[in-house]
UniProtKB/TrEMBL annotation:
This is beta-N-acetylhexosaminidase. Residues 4-141 form the Beta-hexosaminidase bacterial type N-terminal domain. GO terms for cellular component: membrane. Residues 145-506 form the Glycoside hydrolase family 20 catalytic domain. The keyword 4Fe-4S does not apply. It comes from Phytoactinopolyspora halophila. GO terms for biological process: carbohydrate metabolic process; glycosaminoglycan metabolic process.
Amino acid sequence: MPVDLVPHPLSVTELPGTFLLSDDVVIVARGSATDPAWLLHDALRAGTGLNIPVTAKHRNDSSPSITFTQTGEEPPDAFPSTAIERYRLDIRTDGVTIESSHPAGFVRAVQTLRQLLPPSTLRTAPVAPGPVEVPCVSIDDEPRFGWRGVMLDVARHFQPKEFVLRLIDLAALHQLNVIHLHLTDDQGWRLEVPGWPKLTEIGSWRSETVRGHGRAANGFDGTPHGGYYSTDDLREIVAYAARRHITVVPEIDMPGHVRAVLAAHPELGNTGQQKPVATTFGIFSEVLAPTDEALAFARDVLDTVVDIFDSPFIHIGGDECPRTEWEESDAARARARELGLSDVSELQSWFTAQLADHARLHGRRVIGWDEILEDGGAPRDAVVSVWREFATAAKAVAAGHDVIVAPQRAVYLDWYPSADPDEPLHIHGHTPLETVADFDPAPADVSEAAPQGDGDHAPAGDPGTGFGRIFGVQAQLWTEYMPTPRSVEYAAFPRLSAVADMAWASMDNRQHHPVTTRMPAHLQRLDAVGVNYRPLDGPRPW
Ligand code: TNX
């Protein structure tokens, strides 16, 4: 039985025989392994109907067991860190053992075990209830990167909470550990902020939406579009992800991409003019004014975000912020002078620094798209999401920034998966599965760009892990042309499976066992989960 796992583990040894998972089996787990053990219990219950007990001690009888064992000292709960995700999974004919020093590693082992079961067990109810055979195998595993993410844009098209939870399940199955939610943009504001009711009353709705699919989709038929998550919805999402050791990174895009904010609060803009929430896509000239009032707003939103999300990193956007309004505003120019800036274009850098200061007060760090490096730059503790030129990754690392590799040419899943004219409407260029499968997010020249042996890069209390690192890699799902979960899944899969492999597997394993050859087996898993993936041989929408 070939074990075509996605992502590919660091080391896999296939052994003869199978382990019979039946109702004679018990799961043995204590302490930090208890929650992951129940995650396994729940998955087995759903997929096989077996109600395998979780106990703290081995029984005296000879019941075969799946035993979770904590090994060594639990490493500090640092994120991102590959050490906490290390695990060993040993499946023998007479029992299964899972070892890790941290619950994150136990959860990853559970996901690998799920992939080793017959694909039909990934369904939400058993189609063939009862015992299943698991191939014997010995796996030693650790990810290449500690940040393995997917960004979902819920602003351009609101995506129901149930779909966010499903995406978390799919991410978990693929060993991804970050869901980045792009919560705000010109076309909609998607989170409730106590004290700012107009943001959701006005900013979450637009009068038109892009309808349909295919190349004719870019039309409007007067159907309004909207929606937002309540603070409880978001807390539920965070808790659901946390059980799977996935961090939900919220993004509030500022100071550009704020048409939805300004529709609700024109007083935060540069012209005072009230314009509706945007109904088309692109880059708009409207940006936040560099005023104390706008800054107070941004801080208030960050306070809410920090209260809901436990992520050590808060994304503040920073992409595509035109300077035109600032250049044309006497007040903005005066403010820039007052702040001692040499030009209004540095107002964005000032804004980033203010938000980074505020985040730091809460013990958090900001992330920004790579534009934050321009016109004055960003504080060194700001993490940079490199999305335009991949070469920027090396520059950002050399400047001492931690980096998330997210270049559009390799990991923008909103780009076309092929040049086939029958592809449903996507955006910009082409990112076929093969391009994703071949991309190395940290080739030597990028990873070696880090400042060497400079103690001054090490954050206080964290010796040995200086700034200037490649955290990992992240795929983007911008939803301009993805109106529904079904269209998101079509764009995402199976390319996101290849991103997961890129983020976890070693280059050596990726070269010797290309993800494209493992894909046919993996698609059976996606079939069982009911994922609306794009078939390997092209479009059939729908
Ligand atoms: C650029 S990537 C954007 C988004 C668009 C995307 C479409 C980035 C930081 N900004 O606003 O949705 O291109 O691919």
